Amino acid sequence: MDNLIKLRTYVVIDNMQPQYAAVTGMVVKGDLCMAGMAQLYIELEPGSGVYKLMDTALKQTNAKPGFQIVEREYGEIELHSHAIDDVEEAGQVILDSCGLSINDRIKPQVVSEQIISNVDPYQAQLINRDNRLGSIVVPGETVFIMEVEPAAYISIAVNEAEKSADIKLITYDPVGRFGRMYLSGTTSEINAAREAAIASIEGITGR
């Protein structure tokens, strides 16, 4: 494989949570993923490298493809399975074909994060119109918005936030330069979700 491949994101999600899986299932273009599945995201450059890597993973493992995306700057792959061993094997096959290791991935960083308490009805409507793929923001709720770089790492932040707190997932976007997520709920639950989301990002190693 071309040794010019640069690994931006490599992240395994061990147990897709119900809301996260439902929103993901709305946007994947391939095999549907369900709650309880394990998932792999790989983001790289140049973007066109995703085609060969997806081919390699599908021919050598039992992981199923959700999407392969090539956009202006980067390419991204999503694979999933009921067995975490399948996605871990797919990830290793891809890394081996590139001559890379997991340590070659970029260490993610939180680019921005904010909490909006007692959200105004007008702003709630604006968020719902612009961003909703999951639940809706109800006026008076607390809203948490977070951005990370590289983008695909937002997936694990969303999943870990849902694991830790009784929140609503409004939407998330793992594609592009920055990954974003929008959550809503009570202030105490949002604070717990925020802590889990940030810890998940800070706990990922890389270059």
Which features would summarize this protein structure in a list?
207 residues, alpha+beta, Alpha-Beta Plaits, four-stranded antiparallel sheet, 8 strands, 36% helix, elongated
Task: Explain what you see.
It is a single chain. With 207 residues, this protein is of the alpha+beta class. The protein is elongated, with a radius of gyration of 17 Å. Strands 1-2-4-3 form a 4-stranded antiparallel sheet, with helices on both faces. The chain has a 4-stranded antiparallel sheet with strand order 5-6-8-7. The model has no long low-confidence stretch (mean pLDDT 95). The chain has helices at residues 18-27, 50-60, 84-98, 121-131, 154-164, 187-202; strands spanning 6-13, 38-45, 64-70, 75-81, 109-116, 142-149, 168-173, 179-185. It is built from 6 helices and 8 strands, in the order E-H-E-H-E-E-H-E-H-E-H-E-E-H. The protein is 36% helix and 29% strand. Helix 5 packs across helix 6. Strand 3 (64-70) and strand 4 form a beta hairpin. It folds into 2 domains: 6-104, Alpha-Beta Plaits (2-Layer Sandwich); 109-202, BMC (bacterial microcompartment) domain (Alpha-Beta Plaits, 2-Layer Sandwich), CATH 3.30.70.1710.
Q: Could you outline the blueprint of secondary structure elements for this entry?
A:
Elements: E1 6-13, H1 18-27, E2 38-45, H2 50-60, E3 64-70, E4 75-81, H3 84-98, E5 109-116, H4 121-131, E6 142-149, H5 154-164, E7 168-173, E8 179-185, H6 187-202
Antiparallel strand pairs: 1-2, 2-4, 3-4, 5-6, 6-8, 7-8
